Input
Amino acid sequence: MEIVADRVVTIHYTLKDDRGAVLDSSAGGEPLAYIQGHGNLVAGLEKALEGNQEGKTLSVVIPPEDGYGKRDAALIQHVPKRSLQGSGEIKKGMQFQAGTGDGVRMFTVTAVVGDMITLDGNHPLADKTLHFDVEVVSVRAATTQELEHGHVHGAGGHHH
Output
């Protein structure tokens, strides 16, 4: 079966950076299941998988524009500690969700200096070229319920 919109696709993948360091992988674990055409994967990977079939293996190089985007300086904010009251001790590396004009975004604390905190709303992989090695494990039609919910149910999906 061919990978087209509204099909449930199950893949094994390994994601590496430009230096060949593994950033993420499904190897040794459950494959990832997603619905094609629903924005569940970065755009460049969905585009590369379109039209492929079960058993296909491919290597895909995705520029930042088709991956997690370019770094946006406007997403880096300096806020006083008191604006994050109730969060306990704020440390570098902590993450917070915050509403923005584009919806909810994850912010990472990149610095704590005195009473000021630096928050970065860029994805950790922004500006990075992504190198995916992918094996298409299976392709099937999505159920009506999966399409309504926008994600896969059952093995590899959200509801176990």
User: Anything to note?
Assistant: The longest strand covers residues 130-141. Strands lie at 7-16, 22-25, 32-35, 57-62, 76-80, 95-100, 103-113, 116-120, 130-141. The first helix runs from residue 43 to 49. The helical segments are 43-49, 144-149.
